[in-house]
Amino acid sequence: MKDFKQYWLESKSIALPFHTEDKSFSVYELTLHCANCDKKVKEIRGEVKESFGCIEIHMVGVCRPCKLITGNRSRIYPKTNRYLTLKDDGWYEGEIKQNIFYKFIEKVLALLKKICYII
Ligand SMILES: [Zn+2]
Prior knowledge:
By secondary structure, the chain is an alpha+beta fold. The chain has two helices and eight strands, in the order H-E-E-E-E-E-E-E-E-H. The protein has one domain (4-118). 23% of the residues lie in helices and 39% in strands.
């Protein structure tokens, strides 16, 4: 991956949710933790794209208190429910946490409740 600072300057905010072409898988939320303080980074930029059944995510985020840019590169394989993420010493494999989807459903329900309340 390019230099994180350069990538930050060249990137845009990531438009979410991201849906695969066949709509079988969606990314609703991305989280990135600061490499220094480990807090969730609020400002994230980068790119999410699909190619050959794999969703590639390149993201960088700024932690203002640490004045540090943290980057992450991941590949999601929806058909096998696995992902790969790049760390300092290589690629790590893991299982996709489906609760990301449930969190989204909760948000929608919360929003619907608000809308119902207002009406
Ligand atoms: Zn930090």
